[in-house]
Amino acid sequence: MKEKAPAEGLVRADLSKSSPASNLAFNEEIKALKRAGRNIYHFAFGLSPFPVPKCMVRHVQEFSHVNEYLPMSGIAELREEVVKFHKKYDNISLDVDNFVVGPGSKELIYLTMTTFSGDIILPTPAWTTYAPQIGLAGKTPILAETNRDIGWKLTPDILEEAAEKSNTSWKLLILTNPGNPSGTCYTDDQLAALR
């Protein structure tokens, strides 16, 4: 019988210091409670305890023959509709070749982090996986600290203070609206002030 090769060195050493995202760890606790027979209504992760509506199942079945890989930048028709939407509602002219669409924001944000050469500014509080993802991308987040007194909102002053901590000419700001986990919603004027 062949001896197994040691796995040491197979995975990056810095990854051994990481731990599961708190929301994923909590999800595992919920699954354990369900296995133990507890009646749990689990609404996290966009999951519903209710069945998928029959009309949706029919539509999926109708297109089940479409089984090819999608274009790397996303479905062309969808990207064109994104351009039209932003032109109509935001009066912003986008170039369809300057953005991608994909199946989930978390992986797209992470891929952006890994390819971006500058510093990443992260307002706090932030979604539980953003800071660890920044670390996995080989960067240290520049935290833009918000607080309850200002409604957990990023202000131009806080953004400028965070940007001054950066040593790169390019900076990436991760800003969600509404904020997650705070639920903070920015007005159009507040967003414009951050430009």
From TrEMBL:
GO molecular function: pyridoxal phosphate binding; transaminase activity
Cofactor(s) required for function per UniProt: pyridoxal 5'-phosphate
Aminotransferase class I/classII large domain ranges (all copies): 52-194
Taxon lineage: Eukaryota, Metazoa, Ecdysozoa, Arthropoda, Crustacea
Keyword Membrane annotated: no
Superkingdom: Eukaryota
Record key words, sorted: Aminotransferase, Pyridoxal phosphate, Transferase
InterPro entries: Aminotransferase_I/II_large (IPR004839), AspAT/PAT-like (IPR050596), PyrdxlP-dep_Trfase (IPR015424), PyrdxlP-dep_Trfase_major (IPR015421), PyrdxlP-dep_Trfase_small (IPR015422)
Protein name: Aminotransferase class I/classII large domain-containing protein
Record keyword Plastid present: no
Homology family: Belongs to the class-I pyridoxal-phosphate-dependent aminotransferase family.
